[in-house]
């Protein structure tokens, strides 16, 4: 997979950031551009289950070699909010941006957090979900196949560029979760945590009203989709 360079970053930061950060920034920039929102007005929620597994694997490998020296750049990129931090640096964002990780439920929990913030703060909120496969020994235990990411902007009131409205509720009950109709996409949803929202994305793309149930912990997140 070829991820575009993070054009918003200064040259030094652009060289330091890895594929996961570039993917998150590309998703964030495209979503904000399509929504036609002013970046200075946007708050953010960046959700990733794995974080940058390649960087963590590199650090652990360095620690097991003679000398055990860890690159400062690797350490800098290992934190879970690296992608969110790079995005705020690239666009001089001063609004709050959250980096969230909730294992297999990162998409659902991230969406819930973004929606709650959008309503409470009455402000546009960028939601980005992304995960890459993890190399090395960790990747054999925390198996993630393929690359996936998505992003959209939630608005307190539907604007002229709005695709749909979402009514999001959480219940403590465990319900039957919706899956996508395509076997290939269903496999992706099962093997990449960020793709846990594919059923919702498919519902939005189909321009058909209806409800989608997403796995959360605890309980279930129900999203009612109403096309604009």
Automatic annotation (TrEMBL):
Species assigned in the record: Acetobacter lambici
Protein name from the UniProt record: Beta-ketoacyl synthase chain length factor
Superkingdom: Bacteria
SUPFAM superfamilies in alphabetical order: Thiolase-like (SSF53901)
Domain Beta-ketoacyl synthase-like N-terminal residues, every copy: 4-176
């Amino acid at each position: 997979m070829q991820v575009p360079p993070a054009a918003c970053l200064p040259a030094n930061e652009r060289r330091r950031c890895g594929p996961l950060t570039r993917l998150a920034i590309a998703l964030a920039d495209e979503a904000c551009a399509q929504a036609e929102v002013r970046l200075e007005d946007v708050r953010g929620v960046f959700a990733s289950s794995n974080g940058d597994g390649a960087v963590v694997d590199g650090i652990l490998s360095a620690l097991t070699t003679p000398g055990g020296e860890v690159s400062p750049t690797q350490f800098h990129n290992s934190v879970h909010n690296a992608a969110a931090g790079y995005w705020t640096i690239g666009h001089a964002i001063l609004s709050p941006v959250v980096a969230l990780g909730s294992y297999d439920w990162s998409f659902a929990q991230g969406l819930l957090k973004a929606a709650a913030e959008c309503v409470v703060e009455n402000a546009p909120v960028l939601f980005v979900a992304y995960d890459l496969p993890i190399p090395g020994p960790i990747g054999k235990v925390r198996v993630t196949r393929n690359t996936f990411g998505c992003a959209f902007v939630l608005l307190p009131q539907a604007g002229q560029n709005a695709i749909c409205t979402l009514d999001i509720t959480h219940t403590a009950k465990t319900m039957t979760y919706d899956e996508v109709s395509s076997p290939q996409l269903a496999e992706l949803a099962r093997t990449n945590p960020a793709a846990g929202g594919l059923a919702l994305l498919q519902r939005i793309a189909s321009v058909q009203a209806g409800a989608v149930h997403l796995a959360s912990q605890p309980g279930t997140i129900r999203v009612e989709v109403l096309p604009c």
